[in-house]
Amino acid sequence: MTSMLPPALQRHRGLIVLAAVIAVLPLALRNDYHYDVVINAGLNAIVVVGLNLLIGYAGQISLGHAAFFGLGAYASAILTTTYGWPALGAMAAGIAVVGILAYVIARPILRLKGHYLAMATLGIGVIISIVLNTEAQVTGGPDGMSAAPFTVLGYTFATEQSWYWLVGGALLLTVWLSTNLIDSPIGRALRALHGAEIGARVVGIDTTRYKVLIFVISAMFASFAGSLFAHHTPTVTPSILGFIKSVEFVVMAVFGGMASVMGSVVGAVIMTLLPNALAAFEDFEPIILGGIMMGTMIFMPKGLVPTIAKLLRRKEAP
Amino acid sequence: MIESMIQFILAGLTSGAIYALVGLGFSIIYNASHVINFAQGEFIVIGGMSTVALLAAGVPLPLAIVLATLVTMLVGMALAKFAIQPAKDADVVALIIITIGASIFLRGVVQLVFGKDIHSLPAFSGETPLNLMGATLMPQSLWVMGISSALIVVIAWFFNATLAGKAMLATAYNALAARLMGVDTKWVLLSAFALSALLGAVGGIVVTPITFVSYESGIMLGLKGFSAAVLGGLGNGVGAVAGGLILGIVEALSAGYLSSAYKDAIAFIIILVVLVFRPNGLFGKKGIDRV
Amino acid sequence: MSLLKVTNLTKSFGGVSAIRDLSFTIEAGTIHSIIGPNGAGKTTLFNLITGVYTPSSGSVRFNDREVGGVEPHKLAELGMNRTFQNLQIFHNMSAVENVMVGAHLHLQKGLLHSMLRLPSLARSERETREQCWELMDFVGLAQYRHTEASAMSYGALKRLEIARALAAKPKLLLLDEPAAGLNDTETREVDEVIKRIAAQGITVVLVEHDMKMVMGISDHILVLDYGAKLAEGTPAEIRSNPDVIAAYLGTVG
Amino acid sequence: ADPVKIGAFLSVTGPASFLGEPEKKTLEMYVDRLNKQGGVQGRKIELTVYDDGGAPDKAATFAKRLIQSDNVDILIGGTTTGTSMAAIKIADPAGVPFISLAGGIDIVDPVKKWVFKTPHTDRMAAEKVFSDMKKRGLTKVALISENAGFGKSGHDQSLLVAPQYGIEIVADEVYSPKDPDVTAQLTKIKNTAGVQAIFNFGFGQGPAIVTKNYKQLGITQPLYQSHGVASKDFIRLAGDASEGVRLPAAGLVIASQLAATDPQKPVVTAFKSEYEAAFKTEVSTFAGHAYDGLQIALAAILRAGSSDKAKVRDEIEKTSGYVGTGGIVSMSATDHMGLNLSAFHMVEISKGDWKMVD
Amino acid sequence: MLLEIQGLESHYGRVKALKGVDVAVKPGELVALVGANGAGKTTLLRALSGVQSISAGSIRFDGHDITRLPAHKRVQLGIAQVPEGRQVFGPMSVEDNLLMGTYRRRGAKPADDMERMYDTFPILKTKRKQAAGLLSGGQQQMLAMARALMSNPRLLLLDEPSMGLAPLLVGEIFNAVERLKAQGMTILLVEQNAFQALGIADRGYVMETGDITMADDAQVLLGDERVKAAYLGL
Ligand SMILES: Nc1ncnc2c1ncn2[C@@H]1O[C@H](COP(=O)(O)OP(=O)(O)OP(=O)(O)O)[C@@H](O)[C@H]1O
Ligand SMILES: Nc1ncnc2c1ncn2[C@@H]1O[C@H](COP(=O)(O)OP(=O)(O)OP(=O)(O)O)[C@@H](O)[C@H]1O
Ligand SMILES: CC(C)C[C@H](N)C(=O)O
Ligand SMILES: [Mg+2]
Ligand SMILES: [Mg+2]
């Protein structure tokens, strides 16, 4: 059925479905809290889509991505309040700073492989979080700080509804850019260096350059989402960039499906909604959450979306 | 100020020996499967908590220790059997997510079974500090260091000198070939988890008098243990211990001479610097991919 | 002018020299074979020429430019490409995508360009895929056009690497045991493929233990033993060289 | 009639579970009990509790959920200063009365229209400790605090008020919540010339480790803790090392030692025995903070005659002379806590129990 | 019959790689299996060793039904394999690789066997402390062969044992196979070098896309026109 679509649309099946879901979802959202959860899911999804470019496609793990998310958030909070910058300016500055930082650290650490890379990124995340926690004069310390309202061209995003559309749009943009990137020679180069690094180098791919490139891009996506988060959340505190948060991002990516842009979105949404949905189970929450995580990965080791897509394809096939 | 220097180092050795014990647990499972078991910290908690509960129920300490260790090993084997083995086609990241799920799950179970209180155990040989050139050390720290050293010797012997140990390594390097050699790889996985659960339990029991234990202790210990194992070189027992001790000593010296607020950050900076120069940790083997 | 000139090349691992003081040249447009016992250093030599290893000493000149220690991707840009004895397949991709990676050098790689997927990119992707399919046909993999690399047998993957290397449009192509794992009939097919590659003006360096193939298609043969040159010459000269017979060929050759 | 809806977000797990868990138990026990007795004004009480794990961002989300989705009439909670501050940003603009159970002075200073709190502030704890030190002639103090929410804000408040008591902070060290050993920091303090007393701000296992290491190093200067350790768990964990440690605490933990004339005595005695009968563990002041919060809320609802949010808020602000576990609470438009130092006792640990020294 | 395979089927996902294979090997026999790339030879050997799932059919070994037996128990029964792609334990030393070959031979004295292997492949002795992954391709192939022989098997499955070996050594490998046969070992040999394989084999099977299409005495197959055209390059 989908194969009847023109190729351009077919490439963006996921994007179209996502847009449709975003368009009709408000019908099911009954109050600001619902919006709040969905908005957070959307913001997480932006980070995870970017992270999956790095982990799922290029095969380079990062256990420190929450730091980039957090840096973006703090950049927006600090620049808009302490220094009175306009929101978009602060956001751009945050993305630029994170991009530069990611570039500087990427070269030395991306020589590392596997768990060693995981360790290094984790370490960088922890160091950044300690700095933000300790330099209280600038960051508000453990109590954190708030960003100014998100005002663009005189319009202030104040209601949850307005935020919903903003984040929805941002997510669609992220997904669109990422899908395009994956579907280009660059995307192929990323997957190739994941599959066989020496093989990739010998056919002409500067693997270091591509690893750095994708690390920087995914860090910038995280920073972008972090900036939005800062304006939406009441307070930015160091807990948003801790090690646990980084692990959560990775879990979302793997849970939804490695090397799957839509998988990232689905993973982020489910793993954001799940704890909220399970909150009512009180003491049983961790048992159920841990159980679901294990069960899913045991039975769908490739993650939700790729597994389901495979099942569907099997049905569609004659 | 040589006295305080010694004191800092003793403090570092105490924390470091604890990290080392956890790091060893990571190394064993890594050696058998190349999985990083993020539930390693939970083994420590289960060991410590069960001992506390058994003691409270009137079981004498030595028996409580044995029983708690068995309980933890059972949990470890159950984890291998029901969560790791069934996911046979999963790649390493998926397995890591499974162990993260397992750690959340086990934390929930511990919290339900034992509650959320923080517990301690009596020190094995009293609470009178030992004096060492003006610096002091709790006897329990010696227990931790002694047990770590003993375990590392046993583990090094197992992996270097026994066929069973080599079979475990072989399974991680190439499971297909190991099976073709007649290695029961399922059993290897099971025993690796049992072994590292044992290590976790023993670790949990000896460190509880120093650091206490609660259902959540596993997170921080797991993080430090992982750092120790990676710093030393994954899969290398000596490395894990060295990594743990270095981590502990760097933390203590930084707290003592530089800044207590930044001591953890300094420890991670040291790890980063080491990794930049030695991408496989201090004692890790260089990758041997030939083309 | 020779296309490749190796002078006094040495590579040691720890104390052991895998290549020692080796010098030879390869003329453009020829098929040049390198043979020698197992462990003689043939693959190591390939690794040195293609930048996978850095020489311990000595020089490698490609197209009259010193390339010892230059990174592999730069050498690929200069027109060098190879296949591997220990396959380097991208198992996470389809067969044709593996070949398309080979074409990477010749594709548009602008970041913005890619992220916005400008129409020219979509067009070039389509064309590249067509060309890569043709390359697969060329090496005899027509039936694998829509197959995932992970589902191909060993022999098929060997040819896939040849197609991938060809996609880079190299001047110099180094093949490390392309016929290993192929039966005699299949070997003859690969033989044909290599001849046709050479006919297109691509210089081929061949490492192979199949003497029928080597003797049949080589213009020139270099024999290595313990990392050093044992003999050099035309197939006829090599076939009758007593040292080569003793060290390598035996009576089978 | 519609039930009265109370929403709570507490740090039942996470680093502050030491505090959040007894808070939750207390709320559940009393709401249950009241419902059995017929509720308030014939209306049942519906209590919804969420566990924020000590994370401010989660606390904010749960506050939103309680207000928007569960439509609660009043919010209780915020086990920690951090979670409370995050929730304030939601509750205050939404116009929902909110009683925090955390210590940070920032929660009620400056006064926010809808926000109240029950425990003594960290500033008061510092003041109480410093005045005790001053009385004993200890003026050169080493500060060691936990590198996280409560410890950090306690640390800041201590630096702020020290000069008023003529106290000089001569050493200032921190530790992380789960550090297994802090002897390095304490050695530094020990080697600082002139230190006369040590003051530790933190809760959970950290202070117990500080205390044990303090003993191990044989430090002789007196050790003070904050009200963050006012739970028997602290004594249990620190063991012998806790002998002689002083801390400020509300009357609850020393119920039996209060003067017979102390108006708090019957209240704290009753609460203590009810709590201990129900849960078989010794009561901590944190349970008391929750108890006070609930009582103040219910009293206000009773006086308001409805659960109308604005009316309830006004009534909370008018709370006057309420005798709670933390002290006698009299709030006003400028004081949304209503406690002074008089109900804050200096307690010393002796023979494994609390001993009132002031 | 030492080995009896009946109606064996195996799948990779939805692709059927074996479509009902029947093969029988008598004790002491040397049987060659030839076929084009992708015919399913490797799949068959994997299925025999128990590392490839089977969807139909049966395998009997020495009278036992081993169709569902786990891999390690088959090794115990005496089935060893030199797998395609060598599959050495890369980071382990050559010596430890050989030791792993004795894993299911409790009580055996590996030292003597090891010396015998070193006699056959002297290069392995020089490299015995070296990590196997650093050996050259051909050296690894020798190691894989030696490692399998360390288990002193009753049935030896060889998947292209001569791949990547220098001509002298190819001869040596075929000689070794003949010697083993002379000592009474039963061998199932998959070889692309069909000419030589059939030359030393008692019988041969030809496999095409998952089916056995011919089965006969090796000499007969060597003379068969279709075999000549398809596999011998004649
Ligand atoms: N990275 C390395 N470290 C140590 N020794 C190495 C390394 N690479 C190669 N060697 C050694 O160098 C020698 C040459 O190996 P090489 O792979 O080049 O041989 P080859 O001629 O290609 O042999 P084959 O025909 O078996 O493929 C071998 O003895 C090998 O063990
Ligand atoms: N992992 C796999 N997934 C899917 N299909 C596979 C896989 N491995 C092999 N196949 C397919 O199964 C069939 C049989 O492959 P097999 O490797 O057994 O062939 P072979 O006869 O050993 O070939 P070669 O001579 O090239 O080694 C082939 O069509 C191959 O494409
Ligand atoms: C001692 C307590 C009142 C501390 C308080 N829960 C806080 O974190 O601020
Ligand atoms: Mg080679
Ligand atoms: Mg095969």
From TrEMBL, chain A:
Membrane topology type: Multi-pass membrane protein
Subcellular location(s) per record: Cell membrane
This protein's UniProt keywords: Cell membrane, Membrane, Transmembrane, Transmembrane helix
Pfam family, one: BPD_transp_2
GO CC annotations, alphabetized: plasma membrane
A single GO molecular function term of this UniProt record: branched-chain amino acid transmembrane transporter activity
InterPro entries, alphabetized: ABC_transp_permease, LivM-like
Listed transmembrane segments: 40-59, 91-109, 116-134, 163-182, 210-229, 249-274, 286-305
CDD domains per UniProt: TM_PBP1_LivM_like (cd06581)
PANTHER family: BRANCHED AMINO ACID TRANSPORT SYSTEM PERMEASE, HIGH-AFFINITY BRANCHED-CHAIN AMINO ACID TRANSPORT SYSTEM PERMEASE
Protein name per the record: High-affinity branched-chain amino acid transport system permease protein BraE
Species in which this protein is naturally found: Magnetospirillum gryphiswaldense (strain DSM 6361 / JCM 21280 / NBRC 15271 / MSR-1)
Automatic annotation (TrEMBL), chain B:
Pfam families (alphabetical): BPD_transp_2
InterPro entries: ABC_transp_permease (IPR001851), BCAA_transport_permease (IPR052157)
Record's subcellular location: Cell membrane
GO term, biological process aspect, one: amino acid transport
Domain of life from the UniProt record: Bacteria
Keyword Transmembrane helix in annotation: yes
Chief site of localization: membrane
Statement: the UniProt record of this protein carries the keyword Chaperone: no
Alphabetized UniProt keyword annotations: Amino-acid transport, Cell membrane, Membrane, Transmembrane, Transmembrane helix, Transport
UniProt topology in membrane: Multi-pass membrane protein
Membrane-spanning parts: 6-30, 92-114, 141-159, 187-213, 225-253, 265-283
Cellular component, GO, one term: plasma membrane
Gene Ontology terms for molecular function: transmembrane transporter activity
Family: Belongs to the binding-protein-dependent transport system permease family. LivHM subfamily.
The protein, known as: High-affinity branched-chain amino acid transport system permease protein livH
Taxonomic source organism: Magnetospirillum gryphiswaldense (strain DSM 6361 / JCM 21280 / NBRC 15271 / MSR-1)
Organism lineage string: Bacteria, Pseudomonadati, Pseudomonadota, Alphaproteobacteria, Rhodospirillales
UniProtKB/TrEMBL annotation, chain C:
ABC transporter domain boundaries: 4-251
SMART domains: AAA
Keyword Transport: yes
Annotated InterPro entries: AAA+_ATPase (IPR003593), ABC_AA/LPS_Transport (IPR051120), ABC_transporter-like_ATP-bd (IPR003439), BCA_ABC_TP_C (IPR032823), P-loop_NTPase (IPR027417)
Keywords assigned: ATP-binding, Nucleotide-binding, Transport
GO BP terms in the entry: D-alanine transmembrane transport; L-alanine transport; L-isoleucine import across plasma membrane; L-valine import across plasma membrane
A GO cellular component annotation in the UniProt record: plasma membrane
Protein name, per record: High-affinity branched-chain amino acid transport protein (ABC superfamily, ATP-binding)
Organism whose genome encodes this protein: Magnetospirillum gryphiswaldense (strain DSM 6361 / JCM 21280 / NBRC 15271 / MSR-1)
From TrEMBL, chain E:
Similarity comment text for this entry: Belongs to the ABC transporter superfamily.
Phylogenetic classification of the source organism: Bacteria, Pseudomonadati, Pseudomonadota, Alphaproteobacteria, Rhodospirillales
Residue intervals passing through the bilayer: none
UniProt KW Amino-acid biosynthesis keyword: no
Protein name: High-affinity branched-chain amino acid ABC transporter (ATP-binding protein)
Domain ABC transporter: 3-234
Keyword Phosphoprotein assigned: no
Coiled-coil residues: none
Domain of life: Bacteria
UniProt entry keywords in alphabetical sequence: Amino-acid transport, ATP-binding, Nucleotide-binding, Transport
Pfam families per record: ABC_tran
Database matches in Gene3D superfamilies: P-loop containing nucleotide triphosphate hydrolases
CDD domains per record: ABC_TM1139_LivF_branched
UniProt xrefs under PANTHER family: BRANCHED-CHAIN AMINO ACID TRANSPORT SYSTEM,ATP-BINDING PROTEIN, HIGH-AFFINITY BRANCHED-CHAIN AMINO ACID TRANSPORT ATP-BINDING PROTEIN LIVF
Record-level Gene Ontology MF annotations: ATP binding; ATP hydrolysis activity; branched-chain amino acid transmembrane transporter activity
